[in-house]
C-alpha cells in the first residue's frame, strides 16, 4: 500500500524518555510510565495498559472554586504503561517546562491540555481584576517543577513585558505569575468608542514587571458564574466579590 499518508512525518515519534512530547503541532504524545493529568475528553488514541480515572476539578477545594468562579480544568488521571495521544479541536499545542519554586504560570483553564503530577496548581483571582470585567477574572496558577502542555487557537505571540503591555483578556492565554496585572475600562485607553461607534473592546488587561504574556490570535468567549455576561458586576454588587477574593486570593 502506498500513500503520502504514510510519510515519515506522520509516523509515531519514538523516544526512550517518558513524559510529554509533541507528536506534531496539534497532537500531544504522553509516554506514560506512571501518572499524568489531562483534560477530560482529550484522548484520541492510546496503546498499552492505561487506566483513565475522572478527577472532576482536581479535589473538593478546587471543585468548589470551580463552581463559584466558572474557572477550572475538568481533569482525568492517566495511569499505567503505554502511549496516549491527546488533542483539543486541532488547536496548536506548546510545551512549557517549569523549573522550580521561582517559576510560576497563570493560565486560562480552557488552554490547559495536560501536565505532570509534580506540578502544583490552584484557582486564583487575577490580581487587579476586582469585579469589573466579565471575562478572565480567575485563572489556574501552576508552580513547581514539571512540564505542562497548553493549547492556543492559532499561532500565538509571546510578548516580553519590558514596557507597559496590554491585551484583550479573552486572548491572553497565560503569563508569568511574577507580573503585576490590572484591568482597565477600554475607554480610559481610547479604545471604547471610535467616531461614536463601539470598538467591541470593553476591558483591557495591563501587565507590568518582568516576565512574558502569551496572546493567541483568537478570543475565548466568556463563561461561568462570574465570567458570564453581566454577572460579574451583579456579583460585586451583592458582595460576592469580597467573599471570593478572600477565598481565592489574588494574582
Automatic annotation (TrEMBL):
Pfam families in alphabetical order: AIM24
Tree of life domain: Bacteria
Transmembrane segments: none
SUPFAM superfamilies in alphabetical order: TRAP-like
Gene3D superfamilies: Mitochondrial biogenesis AIM24
InterPro entries for this protein: AIM24, AIM24_sf, Trp_RNA-bd_attenuator-like_dom
Protein name according to UniProt: AIM24 family protein
